[in-house]
Design a protein that fits this description.
With about 130 residues, this protein is mainly α. The protein contains six helices and three strands.
Length: about 130
């Protein structure tokens, strides 16, 4: 395990609250990266660091950043408020990659996520208003 604060500021035995020192350094880094970002991807894991990810998402939302959340469907209910502030909610990393490819380059995947089960919306609900 690498202790960031100890590497930069010295051994933790010589400093009290070494964990807080590292957290403060990571906080400076994370805030700077989020502030400079156009789009922020926030990944929520199954077990750990949910509070950090939620805090980062809140900070990004406060700055008006576009947010993409990434988490398993099992976390959807617990993250409903975070997801409400997100522009896109993804369930796997490939969806994030496809979203960014579309946002940055205007590229869509060659195969729809639903594969052969994909039905265009006009085919599902009709052509819509014939005189838009």
């Amino acid at each position: 395990m690498v202790i960031i604060g100890a590497i930069i500021l010295g051994m933790e035995e010589k400093r009290e609250n070494w964990d807080k020192i590292g957290a403060n350094m990571n906080s400076v880094r994370t805030r700077a990266l989020i502030k400079d970002a156009d789009v922020v991807v926030v990944r929520f894991g199954e077990k750990y660091r949910q509070w950090n990810a939620a805090f980062d998402a809140g900070y990004a939302a406060a700055l008006g950043k576009s947010i993409i959340t990434l988490h398993s469907p099992s976390l959807s209910h617990m993250l409903k408020e975070v997801n409400a502030s997100a522009s896109v909610v993804c369930e796997d990393p490939a969806q994030v990659v496809d979203t960014l490819a579309y946002v940055i380059r205007g590229e869509l995947p060659t195969i729809p996520r639903d594969g052969e089960d994909y039905v265009p919306i006009a085919d599902r609900f009709g052509a819509g208003n014939p005189n838009p």
